[in-house]
Structure to design on (183 residues):
């Protein structure tokens, strides 16, 4: 099977963009790139450090530049940060150079996945549970502009990857060959 465009995975923190992206890329014999990792390499520090020392606005501008650069490369699978698609410029470059796939997860799934982690700058608030709910409410209408929406649930990541591949196939972005599970 061949992907005809880069796949840009979007969605909330904890939706599974990195895990799904790695496995999807492996299935397709493509390179996987995590935008957050590339931002950290470019900045020479952690995302948390950027937020603390320079603020979210500086981080988002760096994120926009890195994603635009990454989307100039050959077809690959890209996991974006949770807030990346909220930026109109980033949305436009994704629309131009990739197919966007929203990994949509319900609040309880996201909270279960992120509540124990301490490296989420957006959740460093007095009420992180409420903050997550507010972020979902703000971001979901923008995420809904994605080319494809796939539900990310609890359970094996493989199941979500198969749903992504099926959705890409139906939309005409994944052509030829057979699925691994059909062989």
């Amino acid at each position: 099977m061949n992907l005809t465009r880069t796949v840009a995975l979007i969605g909330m923190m904890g939706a599974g963009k990195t895990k799904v992206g790695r496995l999807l890329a492996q299935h397709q014999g493509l390179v996987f790139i995590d935008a957050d990792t590339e931002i950290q390499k470019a900045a020479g520090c952690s995302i948390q450090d950027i937020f603390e020392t320079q603020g979210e606005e500086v981080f988002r501008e760096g994120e926009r530049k890195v994603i635009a650069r990454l989307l100039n490369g050959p077809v690959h699978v890209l996991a974006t940060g949770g807030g990346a698609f909220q930026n109109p410029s980033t949305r436009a470059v994704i629309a131009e150079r990739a197919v966007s796939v929203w990994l949509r997860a319900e609040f309880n799934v996201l909270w279960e996945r992120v509540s124990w982690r301490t490296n989420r700058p957006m959740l460093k608030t007095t009420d992180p549970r409420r903050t997550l709910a507010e972020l979902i409410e703000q971001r979901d209408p923008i995420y809904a502009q994605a080319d494809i929406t796939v539900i990310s649930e609890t359970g094996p990541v493989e199941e979500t990857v198969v749903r992504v591949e099926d959705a890409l196939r139906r939309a005409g972005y994944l052509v030829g060959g057979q699925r691994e599970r059909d062989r």
Summary: The radius of gyration is 16 Å.
